[in-house]
Amino acid sequence: MNAEKKQSSRVLVVDDEASARSGLEKLLRQEGYTVDAAADGVEAVEVAAERPPDVVITDLKMPRMDGVALLGKLREQDPALPVIVVTAFGDVTSAVLAMRAGAEDYLTKPVDFDALLLTLERALERSALRVEAENLRRQLRERQGEGVEGLIGTSPAMQKVYRMARQVAGARATVLITGESGTGKGELARAIHAKGPRAKGPFVTLHCAALAESLLESELFGHERGAFTGADKRRIGRFEQAHGGTLFLDEVGEIAPSTQVKLLRVLQERTFERVGGNDSVTVDVRLIAATNRDLAAAVQEGRFREDLYYRLNVVHIDMPPLRIRDTDVLLLANHFLRRFASENHRKIEGFTDEARAKLIAHRWPGNVRELENAIERAVVLCDDARIDAEHLPIDAAPVAKGALRIPGATMAEIERYAILSTLEATNGSTTRAAELLDISIRTIQYRLHEYGLTAKSKRPPAAE
């Protein structure tokens, strides 16, 4: 491995023995690696969150959190992170357990440094090959029209999303992603980051609705030692963690007004103070926010700052619900089937005709997340070569009253059914319905007037 690659590789050394830890740290630095060290698993998790490593070398026997437990925590942060475990001679059983839990390799004490260097280089090379293979798979999916950076779908609604994502990826502008829960807002944010010039920088996420107001401020901006009870040391917040990369704030509409003011200042001035501190911290961060709420309505109701809304809404991308992506349902279902069949070591070829019909007919209120969970459950329950309708944990779609009969329906009846069904799927949005139907908004409004309806009708009647 050349010197340039070593310098760009960050190694985290974890050992409760100070002499072993410092000695290994010194030797690896001499070899050209960037090295962080931690005295136990608990400290290692914190270090890895603030400065993500490329590979971890950890002792197995440690207080507070042993190496196997640490391996599990690190896998939650990064499932592909290579971890090398070090165990005492004669305690190979523990090493085998660690390997089964996902460790890359193991070494016995006293550690032969040459063997460690060889193991380390191999782990980094395998990791680089996995990244390269995933990049090639993504490029192939893009050429086949399946999406951008892992997003999947060929429907017109998703093609519009892909175009917007490609256009905005190279810019620094803040992006606001809206859409129902489960539509893939987080995946779109990752895709925008991966396609842009900050791709090699960190991608840091924070779910704003999951934290109380006091905790959210500390998570965003960090805190100084003694800032509040329990703050026994300085903590770096998500903005600092994302320096040089992208910060994704999910459910940004849930942020309290007092924190909204501080977030607005960061977007305007790119500086902030940690909780309990006076020193200004300057960051270079690209912000992507997401919400399933109507922020414009929240502004009107006084629950969300108007100036912050316009700062977030520089570029707006709306993720379409799965119910108007009917051509993508089977494509996504097959993708999840391949993934879960591989993870569960099952040989399942596909879906029966009855299962495919059930998948297409379902309205998917939980969107892509619901579909993913349904396919995972079906894979676990399926004991045949193909998934059948009975394996899918979804209700069969009821037959609509006055449903169209083809052949047997007139063109006027088909047009009425298409317009009203599309308006229902888009929650009454004439703009989105017009885009999906490829007709003008004026045509929809004229037809609604003919039907004696308005675009705000929540549940338009089916075609008679």
Automatic annotation (TrEMBL):
Modified residues (4-aspartylphosphate): D59
SMART domains found in the cross-reference section: AAA, REC
Keywords: ATP-binding, DNA-binding, Nucleotide-binding, Phosphoprotein, Transcription, Transcription regulation
Domain Response regulatory: 10-124
Organism the protein comes from: Sorangium atrum
PROSITE patterns in the cross-refs: RESPONSE_REGULATORY (PS50110), SIGMA54_INTERACT_1 (PS00675), SIGMA54_INTERACT_2 (PS00676), SIGMA54_INTERACT_3 (PS00688), SIGMA54_INTERACT_4 (PS50045)
Protein name per the record: Sigma-54 dependent transcriptional regulator
InterPro entries: AAA+_ATPase (IPR003593), AAA_lid_NorR (IPR058031), CheY-like_superfamily (IPR011006), Homeodomain-like_sf (IPR009057), HTH_Fis (IPR002197), P-loop_NTPase (IPR027417), Sig_transdc_resp-reg_receiver (IPR001789), Sigma_54_int (IPR002078)
Family annotation (CDD domains): AAA (cd00009)
Stored Gene3D superfamilies: 1.10.8.60, 3.40.50.2300, Homeodomain-like, P-loop containing nucleotide triphosphate hydrolases
Residues annotated as domain Sigma-54 factor interaction: 151-380
Record-linked Pfam families: AAA_lid_14, HTH_8, Response_reg, Sigma54_activat
UniProt cross-references to PANTHER family, sorted A to Z: TRANSCRIPTIONAL REGULATORY PROTEIN
